[in-house]
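#lab-general

N.A. 3:47 PM
ok so I finally got the sequence cleaned up, no stray characters, all 258 residues accounted for. can someone with queue access submit it? mine expired

B.Y. 3:52 PM
send it over

N.A. 3:53 PM
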Amino acid sequence: MQGKSRLRHVVIAIALALATTPAFAIDEALLPRNLSPWGMFVSADIIVKTVMIGLAVASLVTWTVWLAKTIELRRKGALALQRTRGLESNMTLAEASARAGDAHDAVAQLIQSCAREAELSGGILDDGLQDRVALRLERVEAAMSRQIARGTGVLATIGATAPFVGLFGTVWGIMNAFIGISESHTTSLAVVAPGIAEALLATALGLVAAIPAVVIYNHLVRGIANYRALLGDASAQLMLLVSRQRDHREFRLARAAE
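B.Y. 4:20 PM
back already:
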C-alpha cells in the first residue's frame, strides 16, 4: 500500500510539471529580447510600424518647414523693412520705382504696381488714381501674404491629426496584445506588458510629432503677421507718396494761375 501511495504522488508531481512547463515556455517565447524604443519598434505589428514611420516622417516635415520658413521670413522681413524705410525719405514715385528696378520681393512689387498704375493713368494724379492704386496694393499684399504662408498649413494638419494617428496605432497594438494573451492562455504580466508597451510607443510618437508642430505653427503665424504688417506699412507709405505728389502738383497749378 505504501508503494502504491508513493507511486501515486510521483505520477501527480510529473503531471503538474508537464502541465506548467508549456506556460513557462510560452512566457519565455513571447518575451521580446529588447525593450528599448528601437527593439519595440522592430517587434511591433506591421500596422503599428507603419503608423510609427508615418509619425516620424511627419516630425521630419515639421522641422524642415520650420527651418525653411524661418530663413525665408528673416530674409524677406529684413528686405521689406529696408525698402519701407527708404520710402519714408523724400522721394518721388519715379525714384522709388527706379530703386526697386526689376526686383521680385514684396515691397518692390508694391512699388512697381503703384508706378504701373500711375503710368497707365497718364500721370494724372487725382482721387481716382489713389483709389486704383489702393486696389492694386491690396491685391499685391494678398498675393504676397499667400506666398509667405505657403507650407504652414501642413503644420496645422500634423498638429491636429498626429495624436489621433498615434492613438490608432495604440489601439491596434493593444488589440493584438490581448489576442496574443488569449492564444497563449496566460495572464502573466511579463507576457502582457511588452505588447502594451509597443502600443503605447505609437501614442508617444504621435505626441512628439504633434506638440512641436503646434508650437512651430503658432510661432510662424506670428512671424507672418509681422511680415504682413511691414507690407501694410509699405503700402501706406506709397499712398502717402502719391498723395504728396498730387498736392504738390495742385500747388504748382494754383501758383501758375495766379
